[in-house]
Amino acid sequence: MLDYVSDKVQDETRQGEAFAPFSEDPNSYKKRFFIESYGCAMNFADSEIVASILNSEGFGATKNLEEADLIFINTCSIREKAELTVRKRLTEFRSLKQKKKGLLVGVLGCMAERLKSKFLEEEKLVDLVVGPDAYRTLPSLVLEAETGQKAVNVLLSRDETYSDISPIRLNSNGVNAFVSIMRGCNNMCSFCVVPFTRGRERSRSADSIVAECKDLFEQGFREVTLLGQNVDSYHFLDEEKDVAITFAMLLEKVALISPLLRIRFSTSHPKDITDEVLFTIKKYENVCDYVHLPVQSGSTRVLQLMNRTYTREWYMAKVARIKEIIPHCGISADIITGFCTEEEKDHQDTLSIMEYAQYHSAYMYYYSERPGTLAQKRYMDDVPLEEKKRRLYEVVALQNKLSLESNLKDIGQSFKILIEGDSKKSETDWMGKNSQGKVFVFPKEEYQLQKGEYVMVEATSCTQGTLLGKIIK
Ligand code: SAH
Ligand code: SF4
Ligand code: F3S
To answer: How many Å lie between the centroid of ligand 1 and the Cα of residue 78?
Structure first.
């Protein structure tokens, strides 16, 4: 737990989920693939697009590594640790490859994009290297690799959004789904590798997003999370209707599909989130009262070096505005400790901004220098590792305290919970979330409820990560 601490889906703690099960007749497929994903939710959503592309070419997914003819690993480059995890996993695939002749291993995603054909030199047993904008070419690349050639496509695109591809929901609980609304990032946060691995920002057509969400709702899904690196800069020009659709407009369109469909979104850049978005959250009960608002640092000087384009005061004003418009809004953040030149007083500024914002939760990391980024080129990575970790510990300890305090405030109150499934620990308990994204666990009792249904629950006790409750009759 030293390097990062995280309690939600968005980062590389969501490691190594294998996708599978849409096999009706296992013999009906010409080849079977296994796909494992690392990194952020966008990568997980991409794996569902990859599965769809491969499936339409007659490939079937398998959860069983031993059964696969093709192994894909969808990779993340955000921190060095994320890349090391992938390399370790590749060495495990190596022995499988030695055992099974013809088994192909493909590297997808951000590491593929960052390292390109260098990957093939470094990892001799990799057969395909395919970047995030080149998944449509996967079937032909597989054919190429089958002939013994190494296949690489890492071209980035200015317009690819895979908008016509209907992702195959694999490993899904049937309640929550991710929907990609845009790709790439035009910001240049100096620590961040994403603009290099994901390319220029582009927005997917609003009609295709709404159609996908509607379809999910009709299939029984009850929560969609609209995904983009910077959702607030969503901008789609509908040339037919001659209108520009903003993120607030998109949010409204999705909210109108059904009051029973909950909507979340991630990630908001503090510089871009608008009052219109906040008023849309307020207006629609089904748009969750929750904003993920990465702060990164509480020090204006460090924020400037990070190229975040806001100051401490500006961020604090944004938090105040969110709370003013949506009084019970859950706010979470991403925080980096030990960025270049960070001093103790900058670190104290981070701790105090956390207190100010009263985050419900946070993803916390120590700075990991990434090759090719602005920070790597311009600044010295001069905070010793031990110091980065010490500061991270303090940030984590403070967040634990804030999370607990926030949960304690909820005790005695009632919340509308969307049931997501059985609790991890017991089949006699449900697990679900409230609008603010907090996890609730409560006994099923005699009520005949199903996952995907809403129920009112009173919070009766808590830990820092979970609220325990009781269904209200
Ligand atoms: N687009 C999102 C975040 C994408 S990356 C946003 O702008 O908020 C997710 C998080 O990883 C970032 O918010 C940041 O906190 C962290 N991160 C990114 N690069 C990092 C690095 N080089 N070292 C440590 N953490 C990093
Ligand atoms: Fe990276 Fe910044 Fe873009 Fe987020 S907004 S993906 S941190 S460059
Ligand atoms: Fe990682 Fe790429 Fe996402 S670097 S965090 S998988 S955009």
So the answer is: 7
